[in-house]
Specification:
By secondary structure, this protein is of the alpha+beta class. It has a single domain, classed as OB fold (Dihydrolipoamide Acetyltransferase, E2P) (Beta Barrel). Helix content is about 20%, strand content about 35%. A hairpin with a 6-residue loop joins strand 8 and strand 9.
Length: about 150
């Protein structure tokens, strides 16, 4: 990685531009640090209380009714920001998007039911059953090596 800093007295505010071939782990880590990320931690809200959520304890992150929620060992919490931002902050080796409205933690998957035509039924360790949309099936099969 090459770092370049240009100082200009007439610059109204600090601006950071990242030039990269693709959105990889290095770029995601940089974005997280620049955005003031909490070192891999997420903050979820329950009423007026903010709770620090550890990604390894999450089962899934999903959008419902125009809001984004994180569900896991600590309960279900409201997250601030759109789902795609959370997808960018999470480790792509541990979390995978399975539909327009859901991201799952691969280590919390109990089983994948491939018998349905075109979709995959995902059973999570907390008993939740959800479905991968056709758009994401090939990506999931690649991750699973099938």
């Amino acid at each position: 990685m090459r770092i370049e800093v240009k100082l200009a007295a007439d610059c109204p505010e600090t601006c950071v531009v990242i030039h990269a071939r693709q959105m990889d782990q290095e770029v995601k880590a940089l974005l997280s640090k620049l955005e003031g990320g909490a070192g891999g931690l997420l903050v979820g809200f329950s009423g007026e209380e903010a709770t620090v959520l550890q990604p390894e304890k999450l089962t899934r992150i999903y959008a419902e009714g125009g809001r984004v929620y994180a569900a896991g060992e600590q309960g279900t919490f409201l997250l601030r920001g759109p789902l795609y931002l959370w997808e960018q902050r999470l480790d792509e080796r541990a979390f995978v998007r399975i539909s327009q409205s859901e991201i799952i933690h691969l280590k919390k998957v109990k089983s994948f039911d491939l018998s349905l035509s075109g979709t995959i039924c995902v059973r999570l360790s907390d008993g939740t059953e959800t479905y991968a949309s056709r758009r994401y099936v090939s990506k999931i099969k690649t991750i699973l090596g099938i």
